Amino acid sequence: MLELSPAITRQYIDAIAVFDALAEATEEAAQVRGGMYWHAGPASSPQAQYLVRTSPAGAETSLGPRTPETQAIYDKFMQRKQASTERLTGLKAALDQQQRMNRALRVGRVDPLVVALLDRLASTRLSEHFRVVGTHALYAYETAAGVRLDADALATRDIDLLWDSRKRIIFSTQLARLDSSMLGVLKKVDPTFRIRQSQKFTAVNKDGFEVDIIRRERTDDDPHPIKLSDADEDFWVAQARRASVLLDSPGFSAVIVATNGTMARMHTVHPATFVAFKRWMAEQPDRDPLKRRRDVLQADAVQVLLDQYLPQV
């Protein structure tokens, strides 16, 4: 385990400040998406004007005839929209600069594909339906602690996404708005992702990197099996033992940094839950001996982080 240098720590803090500011500005910009314009009145009243609000999808809503009140609505909206656009433009430029600094100072060591996947989930508003579990969660813990764990604890070529089946209706609605399957969301990041025919909860790309989507074990109100969309090719989510413990635990999040300097927020489980779960896995008689040893290694490493670097979480 290695503590980050003061230079890397300062750069990370500066980069996160810009990252979070941009995320906040993006949320604010969503409130002024679309536009407003004055629509001419009918032929019988050519001098009349009506305020119309347009949505990003092109729908239009009349807000009434031109009056001091609707003029004030129009002026305020246009001012907010201009201010929002200027802020977004400035923060995007600042983020680009911070990401270049991240790369130059070697702040991050996460696979850029992982960061791109998490960023895609965030931009499509699907991230609230998933928690990263398993080995990749260690990147969130070490980043928050300002250290780098030993490479042996982090070695993996797959990422496990725990899907919250309790929110499946909201999830399906959001996918429908995107006009996409879950596999389609991944393909926007890497078009070579395909569902493994022998393991339909797994998508694999041309480089052999895998994305597994798992769920809690079936309860009385859960349908089973569950496919994430009606698309011909999409994930059939696998049940995972005691995954409900991971869903019900307190959440934990941290902004992780890729080797190319890009950033994304990772949502995972509380470090204490990770430790307890890994120790339970290591005790299972059917657990592969090699994986059992890594379970213990990872649990011990995160416990050290909790004791020495993250007592406040």
Outline the structure in words.
This protein has 313 residues and is α+β, with helices and mostly antiparallel strands. The protein contains ten helices and 14 strands. It has helices spanning 6-30, 68-105, 112-123, 137-145, 151-154, 168-178, 182-187, 243-248, 271-282, 289-308, and strands spanning 2-3, 35-40, 49-54, 60-65, 130-133, 147-148, 158-163, 194-196, 199-204, 210-215, 226-227, 236-239, 251-257, 263-269. Strands 5, 7, 8, 9, 10, 11 and 12 form a seven-stranded mixed beta sheet that branches. Strand 13 and strand 14 form a beta hairpin. The longest helix has 38 residues, at 68-105. The two termini are 20 Å apart. The relative contact order is 0.13. The model has no long low-confidence stretch (mean pLDDT 94). It holds the Pfam family NTP_transf_8. InterPro entries: NTP_transf_8_dom. Residues 114-311 form the Nucleotidyltransferase-like domain. This is Nucleotidyltransferase domain-containing protein.
